[in-house]
Amino acid sequence: MNTDMDNFIGLSAVLTGFNQSVLAPELDPVDIKSEYLPFFTQKIAQESNNPLLVGQIFQKYAALQAKGLTSQQIGEAMLDPANGDSFVLACRKLIFMWYSGAWPTLIAATPTEPASTVSDLISENTYTSSLVWQVMQSHPMGDSNYRYGYWAKPPVPLSDYTGN
Amino acid sequence: MKIKHIFSPGQRKYGVFPIIIGVSLFSLIQILNAADTRSTAAPPLPVLTPQVPLEITVTGTKPTLASLQQDFDVFSWQTFIALNWPANADGTPNTNLTIGQAPNSPVVWESYRESRTIFLPDGATPAPWGQDSPLPDVCKKFDAKYLPPGTMRLTQVGKTANVLDESGEPFKTGPLIDQNGQYARFAIMTNESMFNYILTNKIYSKEGQKVFNADANFPASSTTTQQLGSIMIKTAWVKMGGKYDPAKFYTTYALVYNNPAEEPGVKPSCVLTQVGLVGFHIAHKTASEPQWVWSTFEHVDNVPTLGQKPALPAYNFFDANCKACKVNEPPPRPWNPGTPYTKPTQVERVIAITPEAQQLNASYHQALAAAVPDSVWLNYQLVSTQWPTNAQSKVDPTGVPAPSFLANTTLETYIQGHVKQTSSSCMACHNNATTTTGNFSDFTYLLQRAQ
C-alpha cells in the first residue's frame, strides 16, 4: 500500500513531467519533498475548508496508477474538471509549488481589477530546489553549482534534468 | 540475570495452564537472555591500522543516507588513524609502533609537502618529493640541521595564504585568536601523489599552467590498482603555554613565520615554538568520489555548541565568562599576527555534531585508549564527513553533497551555518576552484598560488 509520500511523489511526477528519481532521489540530503508534503497538505485543507481533500486526491491517484494507466492518462484524469474545482485547483497548485518553490494565492477579479495570482516563497530551500531552474537548464540567481566558465559551454540535455 | 533461577527442580510439576505459562515464561526468558547477551557483549572495537583506506566500505545491503554517512565517517576515522600513525624518517608508517606511541615523533602526514614549498617565487621548480625546501630568509637563523624532527613552518594566519586573497573575500573570513590572545596558525599540505601530479605537469607555476591549459584531474585512490590517490591536509594550531597544556594536544615544534605578504603592516619574523593541533581537515580523492571525500576533525575542547549549555570548564576558543563577547565574529582590522595580544575570538559550533558521529567518536576513542591508554588522540573528534550522494550527476558537478554544510570551527570559524553559497560547504566551495588560467582545478585552490 502506498504511503502519502509515495502518492505525493508519484502524483507530482505525473503532473510536473519530472521523474520520481529527480523529485525524490534515493539518497536525498536536500529532502525537499519532506518540506512540500506537509505544506501542501496543510494549505489545501485550509484553503478548501476540506481536510479530506488531499487524501481524496491521493486515493484517486493511487487508483489510477493501480490500473496501469500511463502518466499522460493519469495526469488528464487528475485535471479533469469533473473532479471539482477544489480538486483540480489543488493539483494545479501542486504543479506551481514544485516549479516555483512558492505557494500561489488566487485573487478574484473586482470591478476595477482583473483576477491575479500572487505567490509567496515557501523557503530558501524551495527557491533553490524549484524545477523552473532545471527546465531552464540553468540555476537559481545567487546559487550555482556549475563550475567557473560554464556559461561558455552548452548545457547538458534537458532529459538529464528531468530524468525522463 | 536473576530471572534464570526461577525454574528450580521442585517446580517442574505443571498442569496444562501452568505449562502454557511456563512455556511463555521460558520464551520470555529466552528473549530476555538474548537481549541480555546483546547488551552485555561489547561490540568489537575498531581496528587501528596504518593503511589509508582507498575507498569507502559500504556495509549496508540496501544503503541509506544514514548508513552511508556512517560508512563515510568510518572511512574518515580510518584515514585519520593512518595519517597520524608514527612515521619512519621517510614518512612511511612505522609498523613497529601504533598510533599514540612515540608522541614526540613525527606522524605520517607531516612528511607531506607544505604549499609554500610547492608554489615558489617566480614559478621556480620545487624540490622533488622527499627533499627539504629552503626556509624563508628570516627563518634561516634556525639551521634546518638542528631543528627537531618534523618541525613545520607555519606561515599562514588565515585559511588562505593571504587573507586579501580572492577566494577569501566573498566570505567573512579572518584570523582566529586563541584564549592567550595569539593568532592561530594554519598549514595546507599535499601527499606524494598530489605533489607529483603538480610537479610532473609543471602546474606549480603560472607559466606551466598556461602550457597545461586544461582542467586538472588529480590521481584518485583506486582499489583496482591499489594505488593511493591525492590527499590534502589542512591543519590549525595554537601556540602552547598559558591556557594551553601541551599534554592535551598533539604537539610539534614549528617555525612560526609572520609573512609580510599576508597583510599590510606585518613585519617578517620567525620564532621556533611548540604548537598544538586544534583542527584537521582531510580531503581524499577516490575513484568513486571524484568530488573528493571531506573529513574534518577537531580538538574536543575547542568550542561549545550554539544553544547548548557549555559542558566544559574551559574551551580552546570560548570564554564562558565573557558575556559581552560577540560569537563567531572576526577581530577588527588591521590584522597582524605580530601583535603581542589580540582579544580572543569567541567561537561556538553552529551545527552540532550528530549523535551518530559522537557514538562513532566514542568507539574510536575506546580503541585508541585500548592501544595507548593516555593517547593524545583521545582529545580529537570527528565533526563529520561530506561526501557526494550522486557522484555521477550530470547536472550537479558537486555531486549533491551530504551533509549539505560542514565546517570546522578552527578553519571555517566565521562561515558556519546553513545558508547556501555563504555557509561552509567543502564541496560547493571547492567546486569553484580554478587554476590561474581559469580551468577547473579539481577541487583545490592551491593551484591559484602559482607564481
Keywords:
heterodimer; A: 164 residues; mainly alpha; two-stranded antiparallel ribbon; 9 helices; 53% helix; B: 451 residues; alpha+beta; globular; disordered N terminus
Please give the structural blueprint.
The complex is a heterodimer of chains A (164) and B (451).
Chain A: H1 4-16, H2 20-23, H3 33-48, H4 53-66, H5 71-78, H6 85-100, E1 102-107, E2 116-121, H7 124-129, H8 131-135, H9 158-162
Antiparallel strand pairs in A: 1-2
Chain B: H1 16-40, H2 65-83, E1 113-114, E2 152-154, E3 185-190, H3 192-200, H4 206-212, E4 231-239, E5 251-258, E6 269-286, E7 289-299, H5 355-371, E8 380-388, E9 401-402, H6 426-430
Parallel strand pairs in B: 2-5
Antiparallel strand pairs in B: 1-3, 3-4, 4-6, 5-6, 6-7, 7-8, 8-9
Helix pairs in contact in B: 2-5
In which range does the helix fraction of chain B lie? 10-25%
Mind telling me the C-alpha Rg of chain A? 17 Å
Average pLDDT reading of chain A? 97
Instruction: Kindly report the average pLDDT value of chain B.
Output: 86
| Number of helices, counting only DSSP H or I runs of 4 residues or more of chain A | 9
Reported for the largest beta sheet of chain B, the result is:
9 strands, mixed
Task: Describe it.
Chain A has 164 residues and is mainly α. Chain A has one domain. Chain A has nine helices and two strands; from the N terminus they run H-H-H-H-H-H-E-E-H-H-H. In chain A, strands 1-2 form a two-stranded antiparallel sheet. The mean pLDDT of chain A is 97. Chain B has 451 residues and is of the alpha+beta class. Chain B has two domains: 37 residues; 398 residues, no CATH class. Chain B is 18% helix and 15% strand. Chain B has six helices and nine strands; from the N terminus they run H-H-E-E-E-H-H-E-E-E-E-H-E-E-H. In chain B, strands 1, 2, 3, 4, 5, 6, 7, 8 and 9 form a nine-stranded mixed β-sheet that branches. In chain B, a hairpin with a 2-residue loop joins strand 6 and strand 7. The longest helix of chain B is centred in the first third of the chain and has 25 residues. The N terminus of chain B is likely disordered. Classes of the chains: A mainly alpha (164), B alpha+beta (451).
